Amino acid sequence: MKILLVEDDAALAAELAKALRAEGFALDLARDGLDAGHLGETEAYDAVVLDLGLPKRDGVAVLQGWRAAGRTMPVLILTARDGWSDKVAGFKAGADDYLVKPFRVEELVMRLRALVRRSQASGAPRIACGPLTYDPGLGTVEHHGLPLRLTGLEWRVLCCLILRKEAVVPRSQLIERVYDGDAEVDSNSIEVIITRLRRKIAPAAIETVRGHGYRLMPQGSL
């Protein structure tokens, strides 16, 4: 799962980023409202942790902009203000949950996971591509009806491909979706993951479209 963390407090941002990565989340970090607004409108995230007290543009305005643009990812807001009016403003803007500072990082992680599960399970049907089936609610992938054992990186790449089955997914998009924004990515890392997936599914399951990216093939090739 990929998370957008929006927090201008450098120490808190570092603490939260470390905890989320330890829990297996990939994440991008924004420290002001302008960067947050741009990332939320142009990138795909499974959820957002959004501080309300941001420089350049406040969190409520950022959230309103995302919802107006049709962005539906679940958003958990953070605020140092415990007044009811601030919470109401956040929910009216489209927030899904909130935490008041100070809070325990463990609670943030639990609430974030619950938001992602609820979002993925709400009306998201199972997606099939030949013998592959992806269940967004459970986050599982089956091959010929049996659970497919995948590493975290393999799961992220395969989910990106199956969500856009039969369409070419650019390599750059896979890198952005799979890795942290600050991660150093080896030039061959995606190719290595694709090779491992082909071994687990079928050699012809994932087509390399030279100069463009990769495509999960339909049933006839699996």
TrEMBL record:
<keyword id="KW-0238">DNA-binding</keyword>
<dbReference type="GO" id="GO:0032993">
    <property type="term" value="C:protein-DNA complex"/>
</dbReference>
<dbReference type="InterPro" id="IPR016032">
    <property type="entry name" value="Sig_transdc_resp-reg_C-effctor"/>
</dbReference>
<dbReference type="GO" id="GO:0000156">
    <property type="term" value="F:phosphorelay response regulator activity"/>
</dbReference>
<dbReference type="GO" id="GO:0005829">
    <property type="term" value="C:cytosol"/>
</dbReference>
<dbReference type="InterPro" id="IPR036388">
    <property type="entry name" value="WH-like_DNA-bd_sf"/>
</dbReference>
<dbReference type="InterPro" id="IPR011006">
    <property type="entry name" value="CheY-like_superfamily"/>
</dbReference>
<keyword id="KW-0804">Transcription</keyword>
<feature type="modified residue" description="4-aspartylphosphate">
    <location>
        <position position="51"/>
    </location>
</feature>
<feature type="DNA-binding region" description="OmpR/PhoB-type">
    <location>
        <begin position="124"/>
        <end position="218"/>
    </location>
</feature>
<keyword id="KW-0597">Phosphoprotein</keyword>
<keyword id="KW-0902">Two-component regulatory system</keyword>
<feature type="domain" description="Response regulatory">
    <location>
        <begin position="2"/>
        <end position="116"/>
    </location>
</feature>
<dbReference type="GO" id="GO:0006355">
    <property type="term" value="P:regulation of DNA-templated transcription"/>
</dbReference>
<protein>
    <submittedName>
        <fullName>Transcriptional regulatory protein BasR</fullName>
    </submittedName>
</protein>
<feature type="domain" description="OmpR/PhoB-type">
    <location>
        <begin position="124"/>
        <end position="218"/>
    </location>
</feature>
<dbReference type="InterPro" id="IPR001789">
    <property type="entry name" value="Sig_transdc_resp-reg_receiver"/>
</dbReference>
<dbReference type="InterPro" id="IPR039420">
    <property type="entry name" value="WalR-like"/>
</dbReference>
<keyword id="KW-0805">Transcription regulation</keyword>
<dbReference type="InterPro" id="IPR001867">
    <property type="entry name" value="OmpR/PhoB-type_DNA-bd"/>
</dbReference>
<dbReference type="GO" id="GO:0000976">
    <property type="term" value="F:transcription cis-regulatory region binding"/>
</dbReference>
<dbReference type="Pfam" id="PF00486">
    <property type="entry name" value="Trans_reg_C"/>
</dbReference>
<dbReference type="Pfam" id="PF00072">
    <property type="entry name" value="Response_reg"/>
</dbReference>
